[in-house]
Design brief:
The structure holds 3 protein chains of 3 kinds. By secondary structure, chain A is an alpha+beta fold. Chain A is built from 11 helices and 14 strands. Chain B has 5 helices and 5 strands, in the order E-E-H-E-E-E-H-H-H-H.
Chain lengths: ~290, ~160, ~775
Amino acid sequence: MSEVAYLAPSSPEAAAAALARAGAQPLSGGTDLLVQLRAGRSRPDVIVDLKSVPGAIGVREAAGGFVIGAATSGAVLGEHTALVKAWPGIVEGANLIGSTQVQGRASLGGNLCNASPAADGVPALVAARAVCVIVGPNGRREAPVEAIATGPGKTSLAQGEFILEFRLPPRPARASDAYLRLIPRTEMDIAVAGAGVNLVLDAAGAVTEANVALGAVAPTVLLVADAGAALVGGKLDEASLAKMEAAVRAACRPISDKRGTVEYRTRIAGVLARRAALIAYQRAGA
Amino acid sequence: MSKTHVTTTVNGDPAEFLVSPRMTLLDALRDELGLTGAKEGCGSGDCGACSVVLDGRLVCSCLVLAAEAEGCRIETIEGMAQGGQLHPLQQKFLEHAALQCGFCTPGLLVASKALLDVNPDPTETEVRYWLAGNLCRCTGYDKIIRAVMDAAAELRQERTAA
Amino acid sequence: MSETLEKPAAPASGLNVVGTRPIRPDGADKVTGRAAYGADFNMPGQLVGKILRSPHAHARIVSIDTSKAKALPGVKAVITGADFPPFLADELIEGGEAASSMRDLAWNVMARAKVLYEGHAVAAVAAISNDIAEEALSRIVVKYETLPHVIDVEAAMAADAPLLHDHIFTAGVETKPDKPSNIAQRHRFARGDLAEGFAAADVIVEGRYTTKATHQGYIEPHACVCAWGEDGRCDVWASSQGAFMVRTYCAKVLGVEISDIRVTPAEIGGGFGGKTTVYLEPVALLLSRTSGFPVKMVMSREEVFRATGPTSGGVILVKLGAKSDGTIVAAEVELKYQAGAFPGSPVGPGAMTALACYDIPNFLITGWDVVTNTPKVAAYRAPGAPISAFGVESAVDELALKLGLDAIAIREKNAVKDGVKAAYGPTYRDIGYLETLAAIKDSDHWKTALKPGQGRGLAVGFWFNVGGESTAAVHLGEDGSAVVVTGSPDIGGSRASMAMMAAEILGLPVERVRPMVADTASIGYSMLTGGSRTTFATGMAVVQAAEKVVAELCARAAKLWDVPVTAVEWRNGQAVCLDAAKDAKPMSLATLAAQSARTGGPISAQVALNAQGAGPGFGVHLCDVEVDAETGAVSVVRYTAAQDVGRAIHPSYVEGQVQGGVAQGVGWALNEEYIFDANGKMENAGFLDYRMPVASDLPMIDAILVEVPNPRHPFGAKGVGEVPIVPPLAAVANAVRGAIGVRMPDLPLSPPKVLAAMDGKAG
């Protein structure tokens, strides 16, 4: 009979120390962990609630860029006007997870570290080139977002480490992002495929920076360099979009499961990347 | 098995109870406080029948550990009617026949109120997407949406009149 | 006592309560969270009961060792199939909409020699807490000898299929087979000369259609609290569609007297047919007897999916022959339905309803009931009919396209009407099918043009609706209020309709009539709530009981006025003296009730009947969809459902039945299905991946209530609850066909399938 302990440390160091124990698991929004606990897929000895760690919740601006507490709920992100204006794709990714109720708790940190290949919060973060600030028993370190998930349900975090916050780069004047996913219903489903596109434009409307990240088409979120490169250089047009789509499809390596087949996911990833690119382009003021 | 003592405010009144670490807020509300209005439809956050408002935020209580509720403010369906008077949402649900078996109704009412608290004039689409996490198998949602929009209109009128 | 009422139905005008939309009497309880459902009730000292379920789709149980579980402190009882009466011989009971095998029920409640599906109950424990009960389950050691399993219905029919039961020899065939098989029964309905019919046809369409198993999807999992007293008296609190059914089934499964069990129906969080049987109650009772304490059992959502009856997946083969003017001259339909672990798929009703909307001179309908290693199917709203209708309505759609006729015209051409002999036997009378077709033809929806990328589909559907046994009592309070007591659990607002009908007869405002759903010891027998029977049959009993009360009130007035009872008439809630010489002012119900002790005692009446003359219902649905050409995603953008309802007692709740059935049908068409892995385990046993429609998936659903009264009900009511789920599968599929130009014969129409179909057309 498993007796679980629940701790709510109030400093990053205490949290790292608690997580360093074998059998310890972090708790952020809880919308994944509680489901796993109930299903018996997770059997921790200690649950370490990160929400009381200073900095874990909240959105602030630092060094010209936004810093997002890793345990901040999607609902809170959605209410932050400046963040929504600068990074609508990141916020919409977070707010597509589950339902309104789930978004009231689910966080980007939890979504990332749960490491589902289909995580809705991750592609836009990767496309944004977000950086994670990681706290552990040996202090702090930083890592790019795409370095965290290493496979379904697995992360590169060492025992005792947790993500405290995400740092986003400063936002140039004409830049925006978008996240789209394909699900069978209109809400509530796990993504069959997802695409996050982040664009920076120059004053003339030409794309100077483009990042395309795909979800649910590989064991982890894919940052497809060729797809981004295809968009850079001129305005978004049929030719560059078609080249991007081809690069996206070439990069996909999904599985066939009850939610979608290899062929379908690959095809849809291309469609979604194209649509997301167009939305990001429009949002950036093209 | 060691239990933790949790102190909260439920529907404006102080409430305290003992919880085991794996107990959810839903379990605590139903089994420790006897507030059985929130229901378990799935236990995995996919149906919304357990919806409550936690520190002003709409959540699934089956996805919150009871221990996390320490020091929090919880609002459940039991707190919606005030002094023997039904809330306009509750009244409109009845007038529009927006319930049949009634099992999803507490969750839907809590979720609808949370919507109108942040968006007093939602469109039909906004209502539908906000409530997508509340499954109803009986009604096909039609009368529920009408009831929410009608209640929203009435609340806006009350606000203007006030 | 069998009742057939041949009075003309009450006129639409002159009704004060019936046809209005009062607030339901249980409303405040339901919107405040006070109403008590199955899991909301507790008995002092109760234990937690849990079930150990088979991880295998098909296996022999070699041994079960419960010793370690029994030894765990806090565990008060552990039981297995061996603790139940063995049921070596079968017993059949009439109940619900078909006869039930008590042996199959008993062996489904808890496995005996074999487990027949993943999730099949193998053992159960009762313990002082959830955690201890879970731990106890993990300490039960079951040794299985796994067997090959079969899920697909046609695979199960093959000669070399894994055999589920040794005792099934196909019934309903000319020569009884000499070997057992998985084919439990063949149903057959025939008329005319099929070969001749097809020979005379100008055009023939043929199609093969398939559907997957779908679940009723009620949001409330099964729950009960049961106590077996030291005196052998049993108390059951359960969420169920029929308290008397629970009583009977528990008595049979446990081998006890029906009179030893009292069942109190809790409020029920949805049933749709899925709660017309028992899963937990006999187990909880036996755990209670063994432990000496009450036992509460609540299913998890996962258990609901793995272990309670979905409806069948099916194969539907349709061949239609027609003249070029659209007259259908021949039809051949073959249905193959999964029954799950024990016989009893709804292929019979599926066969009977398949052609019920069409007047066809030559047809042959064959239906196969086939066992499979999946949970035993349970009734699901118009059981069997949505599946066969999907095939037939898709084929009729193809026929219409081939002949260049519109969807309504071809159905009008072949429509059944009064005097026509139904495909399943009886002669139609007082049906409103043509009127319902007309209602769609006149609708704004039918007249509105489609936008690009959209498609429109029409489909029709039928359900018999049943009558059956009901008991109702009406009691007057000394203040002139009334209580109406029935034994029909309220799954959709029927309680309100009972109060309304009684109020109409008594002449009281509906707020003065309190409806109660009573336990099995407090009211006479009632068949379960299902078959769209409650407003019709229980309503009939309520009306007759109210009429008896009115007769008694008149007798009391006659006594007070000293006139013969023939000189008293009841008008608008008052006794009126017809003898002018008496110069007597009318006396209200309240006045008479207040004097009841003086005039003879309490005023009360009870009526027990077996209602005959239920009116069948017809639905005509129109659906517009939009298909995303790049992803295959289908959205339903407009939906209109017209239905012949006889008389809408409470129109809001009738509309609600229509809208709810449509939503279930849309989910069935687009997204819902049971997905099994190679080992026969369900992969999507939760609301995440068993995808039912959410609020943003649907538009408003326009329900058009067509009233062609049923003269055999005092107010003209026909059953309404089941018809609405029959047309949507084909309405949606026909709309998709309209949008993409390709027939999609296999449900559900998930985006990858739709995209592939579009590709196939282009490529």
